[in-house]
Write a structure and sequence with these properties.
The chain is built from 8 helices and no strands. It is mostly helical and 163 residues long.
C-alpha cells in the first residue's frame, strides 16, 4: 500500500474515532447528571396526541370486536384503553383530572357487556364511552375531535376485516 493511501486511511480512522468519542460524551444516559437524565426522560414521555392515536385504534378495534362477538378481544381493547388513559395521566398531568372523570364514567358499563356477551349491552356501553370521549375533548379544547359513532373498520389483523 502506498504511503498516501496509508496516511489517508489513518486520518480517516482517527477522525471516526474522534467522532465516536465526541458522541460518547453526548450520551446523557451514561454521562449526564441525575437531573439531566430526569429531564431527558421527561422529554421522551408520549404526548397526548401520541397516546390518543393508539386510543383511537383501540376504540375502533373495541367496536368491531364487540360487533363480531369477539368478547375476549373486546375486553382486552377496553383494558388497554384504560391503561393508555392512565399513562396519559402521568405523561400529561394537566389532563389528569379530565382523564380521571373519563375513567370513572366511560368504562364502567363494559363489565356488564362482557359478562353478558350481548351486543345491545355492549353498544350502550360503547355509546357511553364515546359520549365521555366528547366530554373530555370539549373540556380540553379539542371538541373538534369527534370519534365516529360506528367506526367503518378497524386495523387489527385479529379482526380480519376486509380492506
Amino acid at each position: 500500500m502506498n504511503n498516501w493511501l496509508q496516511l489517508t486511511l489513518f486520518v480517516a480512522a482517527l477522525a471516526l474515532s474522534g467522532t465516536a468519542i465526541a458522541d460518547k460524551d453526548k450520551d446523557w444516559q451514561k454521562r449526564g447528571s441525575t437531573a439531566d437524565k430526569v429531564e431527558q426522560i421527561i422529554k421522551t414521555l408520549p404526548s397526548t396526541a401520541h397516546v390518543m392515536i393508539e386510543v383511537g385504534e383501540r376504540y375502533q378495534n373495541l367496536y368491531w370486536a364487540g360487533k363480531l362477538g369477539q368478547w375476549e378481544f373486546a375486553e382486552y381493547q377496553a383494558e388497554e384503553i384504560v391503561k393508555l388513559i392512565e399513562l396519559l395521566q402521568i405523561s400529561a398531568p394537566k389532563r389528569a383530572a379530565t382523564s380521571q372523570v373519563f375513567l370513572e364514567h366511560a368504562m364502567v358499563e363494559f363489565d356488564d357487556a362482557f359478562e353478558k356477551k350481548d351486543w345491545n349491552t355492549f353498544l350502550h356501553a360503547f355509546r357511553t364511552m364515546r359520549a365521555q370521549c366528547m366530554v373530555c375533548h370539549n373540556d380540553n379544547d379539542h371538541g373538534f375531535i369527534v370519534p365516529p359513532e360506528h367506526p367503518v373498520t378497524a386495523d387489527s389483523v385479529i379482526l380480519n376485516l376486509p380492506r
